[in-house]
Here is the input.
Amino acid sequence: MKYNCDMISDLIPLYIDNVCSQSSRQAIEEHLSECASCRELCESMRGSNTILDQNISRERDEVLVKQAKFFKRRSAIAGSIIGAVFALPILICLIVNLATGAGLTWFFIVLAAMFIPASLIIVPLMAYEDKFFWTIVSFTASLLLLLGVCCIYSGGSWFLTAATSVLFGLTLPFMPFIVTARPVAKRIGNNKGLLLVASYTVTYLLMMICIGLKNGSEDFFRIAAAYSISPMIFMWGLFALIRLPKWNGLLKAASCILFSAVVFFFSDTIVLLTYAGRTYIPELTFSTATPEKANGALCWSVLAAGVVLSFLFAIAGIIRSIKNNKKEISK
Here is the structure.
């Protein structure tokens, strides 16, 4: 043996923790291959470290659980106190309504209105998991409830129009968070993009149908369809180009840029064809003397820029694909 056991035993803890130098590691391993007692010492130290790590991990988990329970209790207490504060205006309104003989009309409106701040303050405090998801859901439900109560007590017929408009407006910014939230994501799997685009489409169509029924105009649905087809084609087309082809990112970017430019170029054509049954192609001119010529110049400029940019991205995407194929072949 090149090294005595006392020196090796001093180095074994460093060897186990993998903090010794490479030369020391080699010397220790050579010694362990020849010395049974040092090998036994090394294995016993490994076992002791494993038990110690397990104890530390268990204690850490216990501390985290205790802290989580503590904060949950504090949140529940805070939520209960805030809920009691919100109950004060509801109680005052009830007393005033009964004292003045006005019945319970304003009471139900105030009661529904109190659910809105409660959804924004109490729900995040009381929800143990997915706080933002449940806050959005409760806020949307409370807002729709308030609209329904106000519509009933005002004797109006505008609830569906207002509710679908609010629902569409809330869907635009918040639906990306909804589809990625744990309660929804674990059920829809890899269909988050499809659900997102479908929710935009459904809420928009519901809004336009309710507005059209309330409006009562014969031309409303034809006008709405004329101006809605292009955005729908654009949204679903981009989703299909991003989701379906097995291309790299640069090729997908090229296809999306070209598709966007083409949809923009033919947007007026789609409107006129749907509403008036008349075909229209933007005039190839770069003059801004009239609104029609300015629109034609803008459309052709966007189309030309889209073609050039998509060509550049496509070339870069093809080069990347060739390089990736060469790497796979070389492997």
